[in-house]
């Protein structure tokens, strides 16, 4: 069929849908056949000429609507007939059927997402280094502040102090890790949308891989 062109003007309206032809001859013949459109000069770029003669300014000068011209043209009728022909299934043919939405099982999707997220985080050296250094710093700080606190059991308040120190450490590290991982998750979200649309995996295995990777990284 050769090269085909789908040309639209501002607003998403079609002004040419059809073959280009040798050296864009069919495109040129179509627009030159419209009353008032200037002919292309010898050696002029057909793409540049096409954009110039179909601009909104030229529409106002000529007093024509290229979308309406195309809709009432024989080319538009032929394209519609071709679309209808290609849209009709052949006699005796059956619709495509897939037993599941995804080609792999749920377990395989989980393992693949876990492997992917694991390497994704390990390859992000700045993020991993910052988390490692910050966790080490927080461990030394809290360890120094609450040194030997767990061995003090002289009164009822001492166990509460020990529990409170552990609570503060866990909450502080949790909030810091959650805030630092947000930029990484924001970047991964674009990848997830693309791969989920391609049918590679569903949202649940991806979430499992994200949470498991973060848990493993935090424990490391």
Automatic annotation (TrEMBL):
The chain crosses the membrane at residues 125-147, 167-187. Pfam families: ABC2_membrane. It is found in: Membrane. The lineage of its organism: Eukaryota, Viridiplantae, Streptophyta, Embryophyta, Tracheophyta. GO terms for cellular component: membrane. The keyword Membrane applies. Residues 108-212 form the ABC-2 type transporter transmembrane domain. This is ABC-2 type transporter transmembrane domain-containing protein. The keyword Transcription regulation does not apply. InterPro entries: ABC2_TM. Its main location: membrane. It is a multi-pass membrane protein. Keywords: Membrane, Transmembrane, Transmembrane helix.
């Amino acid at each position: 069929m050769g090269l085909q062109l789908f040309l639209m003007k501002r607003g998403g309206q079609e002004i040419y849908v059809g073959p280009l032809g040798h050296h864009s001859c069919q495109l040129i013949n179509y627009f030159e056949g419209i009353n008032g459109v200037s002919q292309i000069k010898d050696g002029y770029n057909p793409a540049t000429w096409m954009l110039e003669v179909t601009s909104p300014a030229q529409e106002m000068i000529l007093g024509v609507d290229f979308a309406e011209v195309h809709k009432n043209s024989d080319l538009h009728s032929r394209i519609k007939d071709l679309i209808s022909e290609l849209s009709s299934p052949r006699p005796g043919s059956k619709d495509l059927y897939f037993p599941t939405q995804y080609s792999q099982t749920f377990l395989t999707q989980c393992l693949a997402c876990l492997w992917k997220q694991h390497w994704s985080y390990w390859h992000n050296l700045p993020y991993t280094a910052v988390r490692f250094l910050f966790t080490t710093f927080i461990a030394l700080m809290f360890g120094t502040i609450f040194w030997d606190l767990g061995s003090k059991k002289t009164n009822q308040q001492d166990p509460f102090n020990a529990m409170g120190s552990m609570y503060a450490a866990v909450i502080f590290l949790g909030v810091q890790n959650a805030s630092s991982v947000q930029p990484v998750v924001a970047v991964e979200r674009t990848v997830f949308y693309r791969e989920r649309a391609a049918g590679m995996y569903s949202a649940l295995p991806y979430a499992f891989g994200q949470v498991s990777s973060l848990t493993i990284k935090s424990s490391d």
